[in-house]
Amino acid sequence: MANTPQAKKRIRRNDRRAEINGARVSRIRTFVKKVESAIGAGDKAAAAAALAAAQPEMARGVSKGVLHKNTVSRKFARLTKAVSALA
C-alpha cells in the first residue's frame, strides 16, 4: 500500500498511462489487421493504402514508448514484403 503522497501520485499516473497506452496499442493492432485482411483478400491497392496508414501509427507507438523499435521494424518489413508480393 502506498504511504507517501508521491507513491499515491505515481499509482494514479500509472493507471492513466496504462489506459492511454493500451488504447494506443489496440489502435495500432487494428491498423495492422486492416493490412493483413487486405493481403488475405489479395487486394494490392487496398493493402498498400492500409500499409501507408499503418506506418505512421506504428512509428508513433515507438516514439511514445509502447512498442519496441525492432518489433515495429520487423512487422513493417514483413507487411511490406507481403504487400509487394501480391500480384
Automatic annotation (TrEMBL):
Alphabetically ordered keywords of this record: Ribonucleoprotein, Ribosomal protein, RNA-binding, rRNA-binding
Gene Ontology, cellular component aspect: ribosome
InterPro entries: Ribosomal_bS20, Ribosomal_bS20_sf
Coiled coil: none
Keyword S-adenosyl-L-methionine: no
Membrane-traversing stretches: none
Pfam families: Ribosomal_S20p (PF01649)
HAMAP family assigned: Ribosomal_bS20
Role noted for this protein: Binds directly to 16S ribosomal RNA.
Family: Belongs to the bacterial ribosomal protein bS20 family.
UniProt protein name: Small ribosomal subunit protein bS20
Provenance organism: Sphingomonas natans
